[in-house]
Design a protein that fits this description.
Layout lengths: L20 E4 L4 E4 L1 H4 L3 E6 L3 E6 L13 E6 H16 L16 E11 L2 H9 L1 H5 L4 E3 L7 E8 H12 L6 H19 L8 H13 L10 H12 L14 E6 H6 L7 H17 L26
Antiparallel strand pairs: 1-2, 3-4, 4-5, 5-9, 6-8, 7-8
Helix pairs in contact: 2-7, 2-8
Length: 312
């Protein structure tokens, strides 16, 4: 069975520079760009869950942006996105060797080494590309005593941090399971593409997304106006500001002020509604419609003002 692979966008490499997202409400579609985020003006926090903002979807004639779109920003999703992109940056080595084009993930030694069972084909692929896998923070040793076993001496640093976090919460160890998933991901990529990809591995991104979520602002956390402004400012500099670490939307358009000003709210014609109700009541009786206990049958006839004459 063929399965579509999920591909992580490496925001630290500038892959998201030209991305835009189209968000729909019931009546109007909006194409959000990162430039629009810089025009956002914070109004206030709403229900300790969202931040109401005005966003500009246009540029005024004088060249200045005017906020015309009312949006709600999910405070948890926004902070989660900010934390994720910072965690991704911090996951790479700061000083790259001269002439070394590809960034290298920080790694941490595992003692004793993890024993991972693999197939003969997986072992062969891992052996051929084990030097490239070191760039992803994975150090693999191939013991001569077994053709179905590899030893993992180093793993990406975020795996160890995730392990420490789980143990602090009184949970069981997770490193081996994450490493097994990581190896399966890389073997599948080697089988389908014939090489190591330069983007952030999906397994690493999932671990970092979990860390970003646990440390992010939660619902029911009260934020001052200044804190809300700082959050939106930090979000505006993200590579993917429109989605949280797990891909859910971080903001929702509510209303376009320009559209509200254009729409005229007409008052209901009470006299016309009164005549329609009277006619419906009389004609319904005359036609002898028997549809059970209809609402009209249980309603008393509408009395019209005595000074007016109506012909039905």
């Amino acid at each position: 069975m063929f399965c579509w692979r999920m591909v992580a966008v490496d925001v630290s490499s500038g892959q998201a520079e030209s991305l835009a997202v189209k968000i729909h409400n019931i009546l109007y579609p909006y194409r959000f760009t990162k430039e629009m985020i810089h025009s956002m003006q914070v109004l206030q926090q709403v229900d300790n869950k969202f931040i109401a903002c005005l966003m500009s979807t246009k540029t005024e004639e004088n060249g200045e942006a005017g906020g015309n779109l009312l949006v709600l920003v999910d405070q948890h999703a926004a902070h989660e996105r900010i934390r994720l992109e910072q965690l991704i940056i911090d996951s790479y080595e700061k000083q790259q060797p001269q002439g070394f084009g590809r960034k290298k993930l920080l790694s941490s030694t595992v003692s004793p080494p993890l024993e991972i069972t693999v197939t003969e084909e997986q072992r062969r692929l891992l052996w051929c590309y084990h030097k490239n896998l070191e760039d992803l923070g994975l150090e693999i040793v191939f013991p001569d005593t077994s053709d179905s076993l590899v030893l993992i001496g180093k793993v990406p640093l975020c795996f160890v941090e995730r392990e420490a976090s789980e143990l602090r919460r009184g949970r069981s160890t997770v490193t081996k399971g994450i490493v097994e998933e990581f190896i399966r991901e890389q073997v599948e990529l080697l089988q389908t593409t014939g090489g190591i990809q330069g983007s952030l591995p999906l397994t690493v991104q999932k671990v970092l997304a979990s860390q970003a979520c646990h440390g992010a602002i939660k619902f029911n956390d009260s934020l001052s106006f200044e804190e809300s402004c700082r959050l939106i400012e930090a979000l505006s500099w993200c590579q993917l500001p429109f989605q949280c670490a797990h891909g859910r939307p971080s903001m929702l358009p509510l209303a376009n002020i320009d559209h509200l000003e254009q729409e005229k709210q007409t008052k209901p014609n009470l006299a016309k509604l009164h005549r329609m109700a009277q006619a419906w009541h009389l004609f319904g009786k005359g036609e002898g419609c028997d549809m059970g206990q209809s609402p009209q049958a249980s309603m008393p006839p509408c009395e019209l003002p005595r000074e007016q004459n109506y012909c039905l």
